[in-house]
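Office hours follow-up: a student asked to see two folded examples consecutively, so here they are.
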Amino acid sequence: MEAFLRVVEITLYILAFLAIALTVLPFLRHTAWWIRIGEFPRLQIAAVCVAVLMFLPFLAAPFVIFEIIFLLSVAACLGYQLYCFVKYLPFTRNRSRAVAFLCHRTLSGYFTATY
């Protein structure tokens, strides 16, 4: 049982490192696919972060400072991933309609002939 829990703990650390890497890599200004791949599975990366934050504190109970910083960075990754895809959820405000109205209102003055 102890060996199984150690394997699960190591797996969670690997998944957390991958989640951090997939969150940080798209900030680089490269167009390579292996850097841009982190921009698309945002919901899956957030789910991995939630799973790591739920289970890792129970498996690695006595924390050292490195583990605390590691878990805080996973929490920061979760926050960024949530920030990136929460605007696409149905309960968020639709800004495109308001922006289209403002653009139409300001641009219509340029195209009408008022003398």
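And the second, which I mentioned at the end of office hours:
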Amino acid sequence: MKNDSCPHENLVATAARTGKWEESLIAHANECVVCREVKEVAVWMGSLAGQFENEPVPHEKLVWLRSLIREEQARQDRALRPLAVAQGILVLGATAWLAVPQTQSIGVLLTAFSPT
């Protein structure tokens, strides 16, 4: 991995963030590959941050309450998982039992599961 750096990186990042550029820094950022990438990333990050500037931040109690609700829902899902597995096995067994004609079902089950 390359460890490319430039002593002007911080200046370029600050200028890109604030929009206050000096002529010499603009010229350097256009010539230096590292600083050009820093400038592009800083401008992109600034535009990304600007998209969420007017978004209202939810109240911390609401965020906490939502996390508690999600935690409780996850706990209930984990507790009910064995019942869902048992229900699936029961449905599978009932389907298999209904698939075999009723007159032969007991005989087939007895011969299928009897030790030989």
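Two things to take away from it. The chain has two domains: 9-51, 60-113. Residues 9-51 form one domain.
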